[in-house]
């Protein structure tokens, strides 16, 4: 969000307002309806994220550590993942981002990029240490293993979702950094961290309960009622670990009686021509482009369902 806001020369709030309205229009055109079409830039999101964090911290699942980060001397700032691009250390793709490679899909630490460059001014950043908070996934692994075993059997997860999750678990979970040196985001409610916010890995999935909370004050009837509520989720394979490992582990860490994931339906990639769709790079056909073609929404809906990449990547030409 910060990177895009800088590109467009607007505030982060103005950017979110613009795209929230744009997405809303696209969904209306596709004839999709919501009880409440929400967003994560709300006071409820801040309240619920901070509550989960403080409980996890109190329960001993948050650890503090120094993290080696890239620092741009020109911009005079630590560069959060999306502010950095470079060569992927795994597949040598030249435009990998500082958090994930668009080509091979692997998660990356920005400092591991080969020939990193600052996205704002293309200068080569230097390495500096900064203090951060980590969710102790290593300590949470036994409970996460048990959740995955039970939920994947009872909810009959789709095969690639289960394979991706089990790969993470087999390799052994490591503490994951959940804070960043950014201004836009949920503030960290801990002394000494006033200049940092929670990173998307920790707070994005909390959007599900917080958007429900913006719809109704009785949101806990859905989100803290595992005996009577089953949660079904649909997504592309690159988002699997955040929904099957990171978010459930955050729920476990809080100690509250959360509703956990029951069934996950995941697909492979729908690629664009010879590469991947990329919002950040503007590569592909997006909802507003589909609307501008004059082709009816139902034709698009049929095409996308017929070509849903359930067992292998498919290509949109």
Walk me through this protein's architecture.
With 317 residues, the protein is α+β, with helices and mostly antiparallel strands. It is built from eleven helices and 13 strands. The chain has helices at 2-8, 12-29, 43-58, 137-155, 159-171, 200-203, 207-215, 220-223, 240-254, 287-292, 297-306; strands at 62-72, 77-78, 84-87, 96-97, 114-118, 126-135, 176-177, 179-180, 197-198, 231-236, 261-267, 270-272, 314-316. The strands form five sheets. It has a four-stranded antiparallel sheet with strand order 2-1-6-7. A three-stranded antiparallel sheet has the order 4-3-5, with no helix packed on it. Helix 4 packs across helix 9. Keywords: Ligase. It comes from Linderina macrospora. This is Methionine--tRNA ligase mes1. Its EC number is 6.1.1.10.
Notable characteristics:
3-stranded antiparallel β-sheet; 38% helix; 4-stranded antiparallel β-sheet; alpha+beta; single chain; Methionine--tRNA ligase mes1; EC 6.1.1.10; 13 strands; 317 residues
């Amino acid at each position: 969000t910060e990177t895009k806001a800088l590109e467009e020369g607007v505030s982060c709030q103005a950017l979110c307002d613009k795209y929230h309205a744009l997405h809303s229009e696209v969904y209306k055109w596709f004839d999709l309806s919501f009880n409440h079409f929400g967003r994560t830039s709300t006071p409820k999101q801040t309240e619920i994220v901070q509550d989960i964090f403080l409980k996890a911290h109190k329960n001993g699942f948050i650890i503090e550590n120094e993290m080696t980060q890239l620092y741009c001397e020109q911009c005079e700032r630590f560069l959060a993942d999306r502010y950095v691009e470079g060569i992927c250390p795994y597949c040598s793709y030249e435009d990998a981002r500082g958090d994930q490679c668009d080509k091979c899909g692997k998660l990356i630490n920005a400092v591991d990029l080969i020939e990193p460059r600052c996205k704002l001014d293309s200068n080569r950043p230097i390495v500096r240490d900064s203090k951060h908070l980590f969710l102790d996934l290593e300590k949470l692994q036994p409970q996460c293993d048990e959740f995955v075993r039970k939920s994947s059997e009872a909810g009959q997860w789709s095969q690639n979702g289960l394979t991706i999750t089990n790969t993470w678990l087999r390799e052994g979970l490591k503490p994951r950094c959940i804070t960043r040196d950014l201004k836009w985001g949920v503030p960290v409610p801990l002394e000494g961290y006033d200049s940092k916010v929670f990173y998307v890995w920790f707070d994005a999935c909390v959007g599900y309960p917080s958007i429900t909370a913006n719809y109704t004050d009785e949101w806990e009837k859905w989100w803290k009622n595992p005996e009577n509520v089953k949660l079904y989720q649909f997504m592309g394979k690159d988002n699997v670990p955040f929904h099957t490992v990171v978010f459930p582990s955050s729920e476990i860490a809080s100690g509250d009686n959360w509703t956990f994931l029951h069934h996950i339906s995941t697909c492979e990639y729908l690629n664009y021509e010879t590469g991947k769709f990329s919002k950040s790079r503007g590569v592909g056909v997006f909802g507003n482009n589909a609307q501008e073609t004059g082709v009816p929404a139902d034709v698009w809906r049929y095409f996308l369902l017929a070509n849903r990449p359930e067992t292998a990547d498919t290509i949109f030409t």
